[in-house]
Amino acid sequence: MGPTIKTTLTGIEMFRKELDRGEAGDNMGALLRGIKREQIRRGQVLCAPGTVKSHKKFMAQIYILTKEEGGRHTPFVNNYRPQMFIRTTDVTVSLTHPEGTEDPDDKLIMPGDNVEMQCELIHDVALEEGQRFTIREGGKTVGTGIVTKVQE
């Protein structure tokens, strides 16, 4: 995720018009004191200090799209590593069966399954319980889910 950078928000613009405030989901420009364009990248979160935490490991309820829904044609096994899209960032994730699952290496996850999975991102991302996400592979959406429990 990169280091936390403290700054002051000096202005907000949307489509070249100044605004008094921005809301979640707005596509806006933020004028940040002392920050160069090279210091930021897509997917970073702008928030008040201490209001958002970044995490790497969590449990999630995931629905795997069927072939008819535009998803996978084949099942996948434990330790599947697709891309996960959370808010405006994408990151590689390792999907595994929860600890204590009997013989997790043999259990196939089929298209159409709604399963609880252990998720581990390759780097920390700002997320919280109840956060929705999309799973993509090879340029197409193969699943969707919701964070049920943050672990690390």
From TrEMBL:
InterPro entries found in the cross-reference section: EF-Tu_GTPase, EFTu-like_2, Transl_B-barrel_sf, Transl_elong_EF1A/Init_IF2_C, Transl_elong_EFTu/EF1A_C
Keyword annotations of the record: Elongation factor, GTP-binding, Mitochondrion, Nucleotide-binding, Protein biosynthesis
Keyword Nucleotide-binding assigned: yes
Keyword Nucleotide-binding carried by entry: yes
One biological process term in Gene Ontology: mitochondrial translational elongation
GO molecular function: GTP binding; translation elongation factor activity
Any one Pfam family match given in the protein's UniProt record, by short name: GTP_EFTU_D2
GO cellular component: mitochondrion
Domain Translation elongation factor EFTu-like: 5-47
Domain of life: Eukaryota
UniProt domain Translation elongation factor EFTu/EF1A C-terminal: residue ranges: 51-150
Protein name (record): Elongation factor Tu
Species this protein is from: Rhizopus delemar
Lineage: Eukaryota, Fungi, Fungi incertae sedis, Mucoromycota, Mucoromycotina
